[in-house]
Design goal:
This protein is an alpha/beta fold. The chain contains 6 helices and 6 strands, in the order βαβααβααβαββ. Helix 1 packs across helix 2 and helix 4 packs across helix 5.
């Protein structure tokens, strides 16, 4: 069983079923998520709260709080994109094995600390 952190784009792909990725594929793994991803999703899709669909899906995830340490580290890098940095540092703090994303610039890094950055688990 792997600890998997989902970048916002990957999280939205699953929720909106935009690709062939389904949440059930990850049943045997522990999934992690930043609250920032939830915020971005709710904002983009103008969701009304409470939202039963979102609440049900969040049962699959451990939400990693963004604290002062993650924020300060994110201001220092590793990328020039603060949101990407928050996601990467959240994955590292939660000691995830994998960081799933479709962000091409993040995929070129391949690793952030011990966290392997992948497009999918078959990579």
């Amino acid at each position: 069983m792997a600890k998997i952190f989902l970048d916002t784009n990957y999280f939205i792909d699953i929720i909106e079923q935009r690709k062939t990725i389904e949440i059930e594929q990850f049943r045997s793994h522990s999934l992690y998520l930043s609250p920032l991803s939830i915020h971005i999703y709710v904002y983009l899709y103008k969701l009304k709260i409470p939202n039963g669909k979102l609440e049900k899906l969040l049962d699959y995830f451990t939400v990693i709080p963004i604290d002062e340490k993650i924020t300060i580290n994110s201001l220092e890098g590793p990328t020039i994109d603060f949101e990407d940095n928050l996601q990467l540092h959240s994955a590292a703090v939660s000691e995830c094995d994998y960081f799933l994303t479709s962000d091409k610039s993040l995929l070129t890094s391949r690793f952030f600390g011990k966290v392997q950055i992948l497009k999918n688990l078959q990579a």
